[in-house]
Amino acid sequence: MQPSGLFLYISFMKIEKLHELFLKFSTISTDTRKVTKDCIFFALKGENFDGNTYAKKALESGAKYAVIDDERFADSDATILVPDVLTCLQQLANFHRNFYKTKVIALTGSNGKTTTKELINSVLCTTYKTIATVGNLNNHIGVPLTLLAIKEDTEIAIIEMGANHQKEIEFLCNIAEPDFGYITNFGKAHLEGFGSFEGVIKGKSELYDYLQKDEKPIFFNADDELQANKLSNYINKFGFSETDSHYYNIQLKEADPFVQIIFENQEIVSNLIGAYNFINCCAAIIMGKYFNVSIDQIKNGIERYIPSNNRSQVLTQNTNEIILDAYNANPSSMKAALDNFSKLKTTKKIVFLGDMFELGSTAPEEHQHIAELTSALNFTEAFLIGENFDVTTSDLKTFKSFNELAVFLKTNTFKDASILIKGSRGMALERVLDLL
């Protein structure tokens, strides 16, 4: 986290001059392994490295300039010395964001941020020149890099913002200065950093707080009681609902397994599994309506999006149908995935669940709740993997490590089954595919 006075840290004229160079040489690199000809290298620091020591290598590899903050490495006209490289990158991004008239949509939330961002982009790019956060580069470095990808003809930028502590969303808003905002949900994610579920709500709501200061438009799920209550007195809001006629009416037709939606007498068939992805589609739909995208193009945008990177992917392997949702997990997303899987119209259901990370002192309790829920749903078989799940009490089979699971699967196979694989990124449960 940088100091709140970040935009006073480097003089306005110096950033303006650096921006002039950036317009001429507009590729940014922070990794010497990815340096391209005539890029600008920013010598960022990390826990185990100092980018200043790589500045010379970056220039030798083709970088036009290297931005550094250690005068010992200012040994050529191609080095630009600043007080702090990271702060400079953030300031440059803010200056660039305001240089063009691009509209900025910011979104955050506990679950579904990246999928929602991709859906919004898929809808809006049918009609506008858009850019969006690449992958989940949604932190104090990723957000500036995304903003610096704005071009003269970019009409809308969709910026994903992640956080695991208070004030991080506020900080990212000060860099991106969003014109619009959306929070996917409030869930039990990053409890270790936020301290509690109430801390999550407060932290994520910093996006609402930023937008409300200038009465900027907010998109929201009117059927989410927590969000509806927080926005009860706010006028400039645009919501969706299955029941409330004051907002855009969007209906979930079914999710078995793919989400099918009814909106304005159109049936939209997505490539996303899970009723929880209905909400993510709704966000893209109402933003499409707000920006006057035709219903045909909204439908096209939703239907052409295919999930990847271990997020809600549906795969066929031998005789098994697999739902691979191993990119991340927290108690809220885990419960939603289990509830949805239990409702699928298949008879043989196998579940592999991996530990949920960053839960702090609540980890034992939250893993126990998921173990009990999984047991109560009476799947054909269910396996819990990881040190946290291994100490839970239930009638389910647990494995302390992935290696223990691998040994078990060498002599146990599954056929003609529906299989759910879900866990936190650190568990890398996509490895189960190789064992099946």
Automatic annotation (TrEMBL):
The question of whether Cytoplasm is a record keyword is answered with: yes
Q: Where does the Mur ligase C-terminal domain lie? A: 311-423
Domain of life assignment: Bacteria
Role summary: Involved in cell wall formation. Catalyzes the final step in the synthesis of UDP-N-acetylmuramoyl-pentapeptide, the precursor of murein.
- Catalysis performed (reactions): D-alanyl-D-alanine + UDP-N-acetyl-alpha-D-muramoyl-L-alanyl-gamma-D-glutamyl-meso-2,6-diaminopimelate + ATP = UDP-N-acetyl-alpha-D-muramoyl-L-alanyl-gamma-D-glutamyl-meso-2,6-diaminopimeloyl-D-alanyl-D-alanine + ADP + phosphate + H(+)
| GO process terms (BP) | cell division; cell wall organization; peptidoglycan biosynthetic process; regulation of cell shape
Name recorded for this polypeptide: UDP-N-acetylmuramoyl-tripeptide--D-alanyl-D-alanine ligase
Query: In the Enzyme Commission scheme, what number(s) does this protein have?
Result: 6.3.2.10
Every copy of the Mur ligase central domain together lies at: 108-287
A cellular-component GO term for this protein: cytoplasm
Pathway it acts in?
Cell wall biogenesis; peptidoglycan biosynthesis
One Gene Ontology MF term: UDP-N-acetylmuramoylalanyl-D-glutamyl-2,6-diaminopimelate-D-alanyl-D-alanine ligase activity
Q: Which UniProt keywords apply?
A: ATP-binding, Cell cycle, Cell division, Cell shape, Cell wall biogenesis/degradation, Cytoplasm, Ligase, Nucleotide-binding, Peptidoglycan synthesis
Family in the record: Belongs to the MurCDEF family. MurF subfamily.
Query: Mind telling me which InterPro entries this protein's record contains?
Result: Mur-like_cat_sf (IPR036565), Mur_ligase_C (IPR004101), Mur_ligase_C_dom_sf (IPR036615), Mur_ligase_cen (IPR013221), Mur_ligase_N (IPR000713), MurCDEF_CellWall_CoF430Synth (IPR051046), MurE/MurF_N (IPR035911), UDP-N-AcMur_synth (IPR005863)
* Subcellular location(s) of the protein: Cytoplasm
Q: List ligand-binding residues for ATP.
A: 109-115
Identify which top EC class this enzyme belongs to.
ligase
Q: What is its main location?
A: cytoplasm
Residues covered by the Mur ligase N-terminal catalytic domain? 26-87
